[in-house]
Amino acid sequence: MNEDTKKLILELIEANDPIVISRHIRPDGDAVGSTMGFTKVLRDTYPQKKIYLADDDFSDYLAFCGGEDEVPEEVYPNALLIVIDTGTRKRISNRNYAKAKKIVKIDHHIEADPYGDVNWVEDFRSSACEMIADFLVTFKDRLKISPQAAAYVYMGMVTDSGRFRFEGVTGDTMRLAGAMLDYGVDYETLFAHLYTEEPEAFRLKSYVYDHIGITKNGVAYLYMDEATQDRFHLSFEAASGVVNELSKIRGSLIWVAFIANREKKNIRVRLRSRFLGINDLAIKYHGGGHNMAAGATVFSEQEMQELIDDADRLLGEYKSTHEGWL
Ligand code: AMP
Q1: Domain tally for the chain?
Q2: By residue range, what is the domain housing residue 15?
Q3: Is any ligand 1 atom within 6 A of the Cβ of residue 180?
Q4: Residue minimizing CA distance to atom 16 of ligand 1
Q5: pLDDT for 106-119, tens place per residue?
């Protein structure tokens, strides 16, 4: 059935001009890689078409990938809008999305809002880029796939799967990643962009390691309040990245970063886990996401503590009924 959906999407692409491509707010490597990669392929394949990459926000960390286009509002009523890696309409980083003639949704999150006129959703995929790679490989004879486009797609596959470590990575993931490499990805440069950091970053890490809290049952957590964000001159996005520093503590099967959001006057929550799911916990605190990577929002330090206590109970229950976890 998804084969038919993919074919339909290619037909829509061939039949439409202009085309606008968008992703989710607060972009990560998958959102940027999938949209930049897909845009590049479509521009190279259909040089006569107007193809826009349109998003309302930007990622400093992924600035090396390039920028977005200004899209005049009057483009939308005639445009096919392709939204990639975005589960719900609330998270689309395009304030004009509803004005598009037709919307195609391509996504790997659990389906909660089929906002597209055509929805290609495969929640078993490790990344949206894996779906884009699948699309490119399926129609490789009709599409122009440059090393640069393949590099964008490969970047999303690498980052969203934690370098092919997370749940959802399959033989297919590796075959599709291999197919992207075969197009000539310069991975040395890509990894230098992704995985080297400025010296100041290491001072922050040292602070983080000193301040991680661990509950009785092993939930690791950290609160990046406004003062700490200021002390290390962190953007909200950079402060949010600390969740990754909590992931390698043995026995801490759940880890949570709380990041004060000065603008919205609330606290962003980033939840991660291994062996057990935390999606329901995220839903309880006004959020959601994947089984083992989800986001939420709390509105006070008291609610933050309640979430930590809930996570601790969840982990305690899991540990007392399961073996073999690390
Ligand atoms: P994050 O910690 O923001 O990287 O989020 C992890 C995953 O949960 C991502 O796949 C997000 O799409 C999803 N997510 C984050 N926040 C929310 C939310 N408030 N509602 C639904 N899904 C979310």
Answers
A1: 2
A2: 2-194
A3: no
A4: 295
A5: 999 999 999 999 99
